[in-house]
């Protein structure tokens, strides 16, 4: 299989390349930002046909690899290949994801913000191009697997599990949380944006909206349960009261591989890991973590409200990581932006406009 990896130097990108090595895939394209050293290692190892990186890296990349062709992330996404891993975070990931979809590839989608902001528009383009979109996000991969072969009218609820983040049980005053504390996720090692989102529980909010758009499923029947062991990733409850869940080690290489090999499950080094001794499930605390409730609020209004909320969060998280605002200001900014969002129909034009507008408001 020929593969392109968008966001190759990040947490998902690196793991996708490990999967590519396990499976012997030909990696034809890499898109990254400014991590020169990791990108150079990847270029040396995979010898891709085309690479995208920040312009400031180009002279050095050309010096190290005179044969290298450089292009934009969209050009990398559009290369001739069977599949693309879409793992550039935030709305920056949307145009490259779109380019992969439009060229009819299988898209292993990690970039949840694209699905949240542009779900119906992306599906329309995917259907026109014959592209498949398969989830990489662990909960959605689990739900996708649990839904396989089940008539949609038999499905009562989709349940996403949440680890609860680093502040689940701690008496921590959330207004005193530092970036260092928020970046200490109890179960997963991920990039900074998704890790902070997990700490505010906004990641789960994004995931509820992602599930709504990805599975085209009613919001009111998408639920969240806190599950600190993070071993059960998602559950489907059926009309007869039975549940189907997908379980597995907290290792993103599994959902990444599944998105690329579906419907097959080739062997990996993770096959024989032990099961955890106990599994707990409890309701989320929406008062302590209001960002999750705000996501439901945006989801009820749909379309550009989801765009605005996700865009505002990108700015709020960035500002929190820079030490400009408190942890508890993140949901405040989300609430403020949501309350001012104009009610517009979802179109590509309105999406980009609302994204830019919400980011400006969040900066102020
Ligand atoms: N990490 C995880 O386990 C999970 C992640 N996800 C989702 O997957 C996506 C990726 O997350 P993660 O891997 O953690 O993120 P990281 O921050 O670890 O990596 C981001 C990657 O995208 C690149 N990048 C960032 N901005 C741009 C840009 N404007 N143009 C081109 N490349 C860019 C970075 O390049 P560089 O570093 O070179 O600057 C890096 O390669 C997110 O949407 C996240 O929500 C979903 C589930 C789990
Ligand atoms: C690995 C993955 O899919 C992350 O999105 C994960 O869900 C984050 O953990 P939380 O459950 O704490 O948000
Ligand atoms: Mn997830």
Structure, described:
The structure is a single chain. With 364 residues, the protein is an alpha/beta fold. Among the domains are: 2-135, Rossmann fold, CATH 3.40.50.720; 173-178 and 287-363, Orthogonal Bundle (Rna Polymerase Sigma Factor, Chain: A), CATH 1.10.1740. Helix content is 46%, strand content 14%. It contains 15 helices and 10 strands. Strands 3-2-1-4-5-6 form a 6-stranded parallel beta sheet, with helices on both faces. It is globular. The mean pLDDT is 97. The structure holds NADPH dihydro-nicotinamide-adenine-dinucleotide phosphate, 1-deoxy-D-xylulose-5-phosphate and manganese (II) ion. NADPH dihydro-nicotinamide-adenine-dinucleotide phosphate binds at residues 7-13, 31-35, 73, 87-89, 92, 110-113, 137, 188, 190-192, 194, 252. NADPH dihydro-nicotinamide-adenine-dinucleotide phosphate binds next to helix 1, helix 6 and helix 9.
């Amino acid at each position: 299989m020929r593969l392109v990896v968008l966001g190759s130097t990040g947490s998902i990108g690196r793991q996708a390349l490990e999967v590519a090595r396990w499976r012997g895939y030909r990696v034809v394209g890499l898109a990254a930002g400014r991590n020169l050293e990791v990108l150079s290692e990847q270029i040396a190892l995979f010898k891709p046909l085309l690479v995208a990186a920040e312009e400031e890296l180009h002279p050095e990349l050309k010096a190290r690899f005179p044969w290298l062709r450089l292009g934009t992330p969209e050009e990398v996404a559009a290369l001739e290949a069977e599949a693309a891993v879409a793992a550039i975070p935030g709305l920056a990931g949307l145009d490259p994801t779109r380019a992969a979809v439009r060229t009819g590839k299988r898209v292993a989608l990690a970039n949840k913000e694209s699905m949240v902001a542009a779900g119906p528009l992306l599906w329309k383009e995917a259907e026109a191009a014959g592209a498949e979109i398969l989830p990489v996000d662990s909960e959605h991969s689990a739900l996708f697997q649990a839904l396989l072969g089940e008539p949609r009218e038999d499905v009562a609820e989709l349940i996403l599990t949440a680890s609860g983040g680093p502040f689940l049980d701690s008496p921590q005053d959330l207004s005193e949380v530092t970036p260092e504390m928020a970046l200490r996720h109890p179960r997963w090692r991920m990039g900074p944006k998704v890790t902070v989102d997990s700490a505010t529980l906004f990641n789960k909010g994004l995931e509820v909206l992602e599930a709504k758009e990805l599975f085209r499923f009613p919001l009111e029947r998408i639920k969240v349960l806190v599950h600190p062991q993070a071993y059960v990733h998602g559950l489907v409850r059926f009309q007869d009261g039975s549940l189907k869940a997908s379980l597995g080690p907290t290792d993103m290489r599994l959902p990444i591989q599944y998105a690329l090999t579906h419907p097959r499950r080739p062997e990996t080094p993770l096959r024989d890991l032990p099961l955890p001794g106990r599994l707990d499930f409890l309701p989320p605390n929406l008062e302590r973590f209001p960002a999750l409730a705000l996501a439901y609020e945006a989801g009820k209004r749909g379309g550009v409200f989801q765009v605005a909320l996700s865009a505002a969060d990108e700015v709020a998280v960035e500002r929190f990581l820079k030490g400009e605002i408190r942890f508890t200001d993140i949901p405040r900014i989300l609430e403020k932006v949501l309350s001012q969002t104009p009610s517009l129909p979802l179109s590509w034009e309105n999406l980009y406009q609302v994204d830019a507008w919400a980011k400006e408001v969040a900066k102020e």
